[in-house]
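Lab meeting minutes (informal)
Scribe: AK
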Amino acid sequence: MDELNAAMNDPARPWHKRAIDAIKIIPAVGGAYMTGGTAAALAKALTATAAQFFVEVAAKGDREEVLKRSGLTFLMQLKAFHDRHS
């Protein structure tokens, strides 16, 4: 039960992967600034950040799908129901 609870509460992507993705954006934004100025850098930052947002959403959806397929999420719901009514 504790293992299932930990799996449900873990983030969809580890923090180090998020940090690496954030660092990858810096050279692209810097290059855009050097070639096109502030407007180009802002546009590049927005598009890169939007792409990362969709990666996070997809990872969260994948994690939820895996948990649903495991067939054990009902145990967590049963435990929550039991805790509320005890």
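Next up, CB showed the second protein from the same session:
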Amino acid sequence: MNVVALRRVSWEDGQESAVRLWNQARETGEDFLYQLNRQVKRHPWKAVAVALMAGTIVGGLVSLSGRR
């Protein structure tokens, strides 16, 4: 094989790997969102409490960074 042929094979392998990784990441994200949705439906008040705590923490951090 010459250099041009090797580059083409390597480029095609790279593209296939990127597509495979993208599909795997998409499936993982979809599975995560599905599981999150199930947990929120099972425990809605816990979800509200977690969201409230997260909002309070983020709000506190934002207000601290604004004081500088």
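CB comment: The chain has a mean pLDDT of 89.
No objections, moving on.
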